[in-house]
Specification:
Elements lengths: L1 H22 L5 H23 L6 H21 L16 H8 L4 H21 L5 H79 L7 H20 L6 H15 L3 E7 L7 H17 L3 E8 L3 E8 L14 E7 L2 E9 L4
Parallel strand pairs: 1-2
Antiparallel strand pairs: 2-3, 3-5, 4-5
């Protein structure tokens, strides 16, 4: 719409205003020429902003409005009193297109300025002493034709703007839905991969039990079964929507150990801290190993501060199979007689 307005304004000014300016008589021709040049300069400045697809700054719009109104009244004053709102007064009706180009994004200001310009123009007509009814009729018809077309452009622009905003909102909502679907698919694929990796260590155990290659009465087989059960229980707890995922997953490990007959005491201190899923897996991995290897008793402690998270386990178990430190989680463990003591530590990133 701005590009159309620039083209229409330039075509109307040079097509309808240049010929009267060159052929008609004026009281002050220099004033009419200055007004024509000023309006042409306003169109050129607006063209620069429109071609860059940028809205006019408020200062440029305000300065341009003042210049257009001054040029309009200058061109009107250059014509003889009897020629105002006639062919020599080429600015009447034309300046409305310049104002429309300047104030298209400011509809209320545009309507107020157009109304003020129309009232001032009629006041100058009355002050010129022309009382001919035909002159009033011609002036009214010209004013009605110009203003009605310009207001129709404003209405069309507002309708197109509203439709474009609605289309943009629909497109943004579609993009959000597509993003949610993509994230859901990625999350599902990640869960499948994690579960497949978990089952990768469980399936050989199940196959060995089914084929009779593994004896359920042996200590090593029972330990492997306990480890697989605790790992799966923690894996299932990872998918639950809970306020404190870390404590929920550690609780799942504790519950799995208690189902196997281990007496577990569990303590939590500190407020909940956001922990990424991968870090939670690394923090709970040594807990799973220690609890699945415990024979009768274990103690689990979760300590959280603003700077780090610690999970400590003391159990009557060996240190075999304890997960080593990773890039994000540091694991320390040691055997004290018949008891295993380990600690997984993760330092929270600085806020």
């Amino acid at each position: 719409m701005r590009i159309v307005l620039v083209c229409a304004t330039g075509a109307l000014q040079f097509g309808l205003g240049l010929q009267p300016l060159l052929t008609r008589e004026y009281r002050h021709r220099w004033l009419a020429v200055a007004a024509f040049v000023a309006l042409a300069c306003v169109t050129a400045v607006c063209c620069g902003w429109v071609l860059r697809r940028r809205p006019l700054p408020a200062a440029v719009a305000a300065a341009g409005t003042v210049l257009v109104l001054a040029a309009s009244f200058g061109a009107m004053a250059a014509a003889a009193p009897g020629q105002r709102h006639a062919a020599p007064d080429w600015s009447f009706g034309l300046v409305g297109w310049h104002l429309l180009l300047l104030l298209l994004d400011r509809v209320r200001v545009l309507v107020a300025v157009l109304a003020a310009h129309l009232v001032a123009s009629l006041g100058l007509l009355l002050s010129s002493g022309v009382a001919d009814r035909a002159a009033f009729g011609a002036t009214g018809a010209a004013a009605f034709g110009a203003v009605s077309v310009q207001l129709a452009v404003v209405v069309i622009t507002r309708v197109l703007q509203r439709q474009s905003q609605e289309a943009t909102a629909v497109a943004e909502e579609r993009d959000r839905l597509e993003t949610r679907v993509l994230l859901a698919r990625q999350w599902e694929q990640g869960q499948r991969s994690a579960l497949a990796g978990q089952l990768g260590s469980t399936l050989p155990l199940l196959a060995g039990l089914a084929d009779g290659d593994l004896d359920p009465r042996e200590e090593d087989t029972r330990r492997r079964c306990a480890l697989a059960a605790t790992q799966l229980r923690r894996q299932f707890a990872e998918n639950d929507e809970v306020p404190d995922p870390l404590v929920h997953e550690v609780t799942a490990c504790v519950d799995a150990a208690e189902r196997l007959g281990v007496d577990v005491s569990f303590a939590v201190s500190g407020a909940a801290v956001p922990v990424p899923p991968q870090v939670r897996r690394e923090l709970t991995a040594p807990v799973v190993t220690a609890l699945s290897a415990a024979r009768s008793r274990a103690r689990v402690s979760v300590l959280r501060t603003d700077r780090e998270i610690r999970i400590a386990v003391v159990a009557d178990a060996g240190a075999d199979g304890v997960t080593a430190s990773t890039g994000q989680v540091r694991v320390e463990h040691g055997a004290y007689g018949e008891h295993l003591r380990l600690e997984a530590r993760w330092r929270t990133p600085p806020s």
